[in-house]
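It would be a great kindness if you could assist me with a short task in structural biology. Thank you for your consideration; the sequence and its tokens are set out here.
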Amino acid sequence: MSLILTPEPHERRRGGRTLLDRVVALVPIEVVSTYAAIAAAAPSARQLWIAVVVGVAATVATLSAYGRHVRRRAGPAQHVVRTLAFVAWTFVLSNPLAPAAPVARWLPGLAVVLIPLVGAFMFPPASPIEPIRRD
């Protein structure tokens, strides 16, 4: 499960999160790997679209569930970045718009690199997650 957590001050001195750690954390690998298995077995475009919709919902749900587990909340921007990363991976693995709207292979390939990279710069190590306040 990937969630960008703010390191404690003593963790930063011992080698907190690097840029690569933050980039990898923004790729919803648990959902992407499930989608890859479904896309390999899905015989129709309709089933692929159902898998994309379920994958988007699962991306949001897994981040929310993990945030509740560690008692920290991911902001809406992190949900958007992870969801866009998932959608980019769907186009790399199997274009859900094909054959109606072909997409150049380089475009989603570039997106799977750039979306998490830009997201990692959006969420510096000290600010991406707010603690959940329990009143």
Q: What stands out?
A: DSSP finds six helices and two strands in the chain. Residues 56 and 83 are 6 Å apart (CA to CA).
